[in-house]
Amino acid sequence: MTQSTAALAPAKINLALHVTGRRADGYHLLETLVVFARFGDVLAVEAAAADAVTIGGPHGAGLPADGSNLVVAARDRLRAALPAETATPVAIHLDKRLPVASGVGGGSSDAAAALRALAQVWGLDAGSAAIAGIAAGLGADVPMCLDGRPLVARGIGHTLEPLAAWPAFDVVLVNPGVAVATPAVFGALARRDNPPLPPLPRTPDHAAALAFLAAARNDLEAPALALAPQIGDALDALRAAGAGFARMSGSGATCFGIFDGAEAAQAAAARIRADRPGWFVEATRTNGAGA
Known about the structure:
Blueprint lengths: L3 E19 L5 E20 L4 E5 L13 H11 L9 E6 L10 H17 L6 H10 L3 H6 L3 E5 L3 E4 L7 E6 L6 H6 L18 H10 L5 H7 L2 H11 L4 E4 L6 E5 L2 H14 L4 E6 L6
Parallel strand pairs: 3-4
Antiparallel strand pairs: 1-2, 2-4, 2-5, 5-6, 7-9, 7-10, 8-9
Helix pairs in contact: 1-2, 1-3
């Protein structure tokens, strides 16, 4: 138990995303390779005399601080599962650094960070089955964000396979300032029974991982591009700035480019910011797995 803590809610990057089917209840079946960046929203939680939620940061304007916010929902659902003497009042501040509705799991990652931070303040095991169950009830992406490691997610996102080995990448994240509604993107899919991910490389060094990505897809990229052609501008900007590989993440509109080293990524980010001052642009590094 601690009086205060801060947690990173990292950007979730879908390096590949295949839509493989659809359940009778309307949920789409996916296979997706996910990594997390070293950049994201930041959540601060501290013991307080009364509950409070505040939101700031470059993308915090207009975000609600009520139960429709997954951070508040995470607090309330975790509290409901605990004795009153354990779930004492807390003040939560969300520093929103990621664009909203941008395909990098901002809300889901925020909820997972809230669960981790509240576990520290309330003296709980963040890896417990109870917290995992609450994460699953908050949304399909929250369990993978709670896990926070390179992984393959299947089904509706709750079947997680952490990767024993996967390289870290220097990347630039770019969002052209357009919000894309996830239901609209799924609704515009040409087909929903696409092939699954190709086999993962046995020895996923940098070259093998890039070859895997080149053989994989994001099945949501084409319908998202049809709805928001600005996504194509973001991909073009990344490639023109030297990205060896570029793709849209999730349902968009954020795109990522993979660069050969941190210096190249920083230079590319500076170039794109200069050319497109209204865009969200961030150079960062993804987490890896294994040696």
